[in-house]
Specification:
InterPro entries: RidA_CS (IPR019897), RutC-like_sf (IPR035959), YjgF/YER057c/UK114 (IPR006175), YoaB-like (IPR035709). It comes from Ottowia testudinis. By secondary structure, the chain is an alpha+beta fold. It has two helices and six strands; from the N terminus they run βββαβαββ. Helix 1 runs parallel beside helix 2.
């Protein structure tokens, strides 16, 4: 069974496709993103849409999502963006986790998803 690696770098791939499943690396907002968690989540979900399409999948095929927040008081802002984006007919299994920090101080939300192809 082949393994397809998308947007490879020296450290990691942004997506890996294997056995009919696509695994995305943790996605964050674009460079220079502001502190607004709603907007960071919206940008992050747009990155997820782009990578899923590149892998031949979509949010309708999500299996699971793990969301990391640096401040659980922003859970409602993140959920507002998530609920506007997620396919209500095909919601994935999901967990939201509080973390003290992410890879850069500007990031307040990071999302990891797994989807069927």
């Amino acid at each position: 069974m082949s393994i397809q690696r998308l947007e490879k770098g020296p450290r990691m791939s942004q997506a890996v496709v294997h056995g009919g499943t696509v695994y995305l690396a943790g996605q964050v907002c674009d460079e220079g993103c502001g502190p607004d968690v709603f907007e960071q989540t919206r940008q992050t979900l747009a990155s997820i849409d782009r990578l899923l399409a590149l892998a031949g999948s979509s949010k309708a095929k999500l299996l699971s999502a793990t969301i990391f927040l640096t401040d659980m008081d922003t859970f409602g802002d993140m959920n507002r963006a998530w609920e506007a984006w997620v396919d209500p007919a095909h919601p994935p299994a999901r967990a939201t986790v509080h973390t003290a920090r992410l890879a850069s101080a500007e990031y307040r939300v990071e999302i990891v998803v797994v989807a069927a192809v």
